[in-house]
Design goal:
Elements: H1 5-49, H2 55-81, H3 87-127, H4 129-134, H5 142-177
């Protein structure tokens, strides 16, 4: 090597440190994933709703409310059908059922689906972490690490915004419907 000995030692220490960091990230990946996918959304929901529940439990409450709404509409339909009803009545009942389903379960279903996508995205972020940390070893692959880091930070912040919006929407549905 034509480098001075100090540069060679510094480069070897840098590579050793990055390798150690990648191995440590591998062992801490489950804790980091749990922090990003469970603890952070719970914290956001605690700020929004004041309860310790996670977004999934609020989504479940909205789906239970939707089931209760359907039971109420079906009970009303059964009581009203004894008195008779034409096609216009059945059409109004069908429309009421559809609108209550969309209004009550819409935010919960959409929020749940998007939360699942974010959990997969954060799982990929944490899972590929050691590989992208090792990209810091070579100068030509350093930009891969920065893009990975931008992706992870962006996904984390958008998950926080999603948890906030799910909290607002589910709380609103519970106040109006419950």
């Amino acid at each position: 090597s034509r480098e001075p000995m100090m540069a060679l030692v510094t480069n070897a220490l840098r590579i050793g440190f990055l390798s150690f960091l990648a191995v440590g990230f591998t062992f801490m990946g489950t804790d980091i994933g749990k922090l990003l996918t469970e603890t952070m959304p719970k914290g956001v929901m605690r700020v929004v709703t004041g309860s310790e529940a996670d977004p999934a439990s609020h989504i479940d409450q909205n789906l239970i409310l939707m089931g209760a709404t359907f039971a109420l509409i079906d009970g009303y339909a059964a009581a009203s059908s004894a008195g008779g009803g034409g096609d216009a009545y059945k059409e109004q009942l069908s429309r009421a059922t559809t609108m209550s389903a969309v209004g009550t379960a819409g935010p919960a279903v959409i929020g749940g689906a998007i939360l699942l996508v974010y959990k997969v995205a954060l799982g990929l972020f944490v899972g590929f972490g050691p590989l992208f940390i090792l990209c810091l070893i070579f100068p030509s692959t350093k930009q891969l690490f920065s893009k990975w880091l931008y992706y992870g930070i962006g996904t984390t912040f958008s998950l926080a915004v999603l948890a906030f919006m799910v909290g607002v929407a589910t709380k609103l549905v519970m106040v109006i419907g419950g």
